[in-house]
Design a protein that fits this description.
The chain is α+β, with helices and mostly antiparallel strands. It has 2 domains: 7-131, Sandwich (Immunoglobulin-like); 146-378, Rossmann fold (3-Layer(aba) Sandwich). The chain has 9 helices and 19 strands. The strands form 3 sheets. Strands 3, 4, 5, 6, 7, 8, 9, 10 and 11 form a 9-stranded antiparallel β-sheet that branches. The longest helix is centred in the last third of the chain and has 17 residues, at 334-350. It is globular.
Length: 381
């Protein structure tokens, strides 16, 4: 098990180096009193034997519990014991390695623990922790790329939007070089920061580049929610496809050094983002020559306004316009597997080209990180 306080394991949008300092009164040897920074207890600590100790400071609470939200950690609530200083703790055995969203309950009310990493998931702020056994997403002593946040105007939504872009380590040093682009989408209940703080995509890309495992590329991360409040949106998340093609991609291709040609443009996403990626790739078949579906089925949803199965049926045309069609999922995702089975059987019978990747896991970031790594190994070849 790897757990060495690598910043990638504990950094989030609120802090990078998880020093967790707090202010406390201190009296020195001469009787002088004043504030002093002391170390706060970590909200989550993976013990040497693999147990996980959870801790939250709540001196005015009577009871505290901690639980996962599903997946490998499950949803069982674990009672936490209070000490004289007002800290509640619980040590839990048997939590498998991987990425885990989890929640704390104080007197029956769910709350955020400021002592543990915080991300945005399930449409709210939520705590997470890492019990790592892999190192491909950790920070290593390799050249690092940059993560930039840009603002652009969207005619499709009538609003200013935020987009995050990963650029490879030599982007600034090689001003004449141009790059292919991967448009990478988050899942339902998340936002454009998910692939950074939860997915660690910048560390994954840095490490893969250093190992020669993928092409240099730009990675562009949007928020999928594109509601136009000037209209009565039938689908509450709005029209992401129109925003992407009409607003975001022109902005990226004007401001950044992008290689021309559809073969240098790819799209992928997880869960809800996988379906948005599917719709954009199929609606404009050939515009994204490569696309990846992570933890998603292909069954047409009610809000899709076109029939892409006709393009799957035209196998020769699909294969001619598609360089890489990648489907990845966890072996414990029963609903995804059941949904994909009839389509993959049909693809095998008709000769439609695709790549299937499976890995142990549920509908969690542990699976999606592995999926994106395998996808990027094959991308832009």
């Amino acid at each position: 098990m790897i757990y060495n306080r690598n910043e990638a394991l504990e950094s989030d949008a609120l802090y990078f180096d998880a020093a967790r300092l707090k202010m406390a009164l201190f009296t020195d040897a001469n009787g002088n009193r004043g504030p002093r920074h002391v170390f706060e207890r970590p909200g989550v600590k993976v013990e040497d034997n693999g147990d996980v100790t959870f801790c939250i400071y709540a001196p005015n609470a009577n009871e505290a519990e901690v639980c996962g939200i599903g997946g490998y950690m499950g949803t069982e609530r674990h009672k936490m014991e209070k000490d004289a200083e007002g800290y509640f703790t619980a040590t839990v055995s048997g939590i498998p390695a991987g990425y885990h969203y989890h929640e704390y309950y104080l007197d029956g009310n769910v709350t955020i623990n400021p002592q543990a990493p915080i991300g945005y998931g399930c449409h709210k702020l939520i705590n997470f922790f890492e019990k790592a056994e892999e190192d491909f997403y950790l920070i290593k002593n390799v050249p690092h790329g940059a993560v930039r946040m840009e603002l652009f105007e969207s005619k499709e939504t009538g609003k200013t939007r935020s987009v995050w872009i990963y650029t490879p380590p030599k982007y600034e040093q090689e001003p004449e070089k141009r790059y292919p682009v991967l448009y990478l989408n988050h899942g339902g209940g998340e936002n454009e920061t998910g692939w950074i703080w939860q997915g660690k995509i910048n560390h994954i890309a840095d490490n893969m580049l250093a190992a020669g495992e993928c092409r240099e590329m730009l990675i562009v991360m949007n928020c999928l929610y594109c509601v136009d409040e000037r209209k009565d949106n039938a689908f509450l998340a709005g029209d992401f496809d129109s925003m992407l093609l009409n607003d975001c991609i022109p902005f990226i291709e004007k401001k950044y050094r992008v290689l021309p040609g559809n073969e240098n443009r790819a799209i992928a996403g997880l869960s809800m983002g996988s379906y948005h990626s599917l719709m954009s790739a199929m609606k404009h078949l050939g515009y994204f020559r490569s696309f990846g579906i992570f933890s998603g089925a292909l069954t047409r949803r009610w809000y899709c306004d076109f029939d892409y199965y006709k393009d799957f049926a035209d196998v020769e045309n699909f294969n001619a316009k598609t360089d890489l069609f990648f489907l990845g999922y966890g072996t414990d995702e029963a609903n995804i597997i059941a949904g994909l089975e009839p389509d993959l059987k049909r693809f095998d019978e008709t000769g439609l080209r695709y790549v299937r990747y499976t890995t142990p896991g549920y509908h969690e970031w542990t699976v999606w990180r592995r999926c994106v790594r395998e996808f990027m190994k094959l991308l832009f070849k």
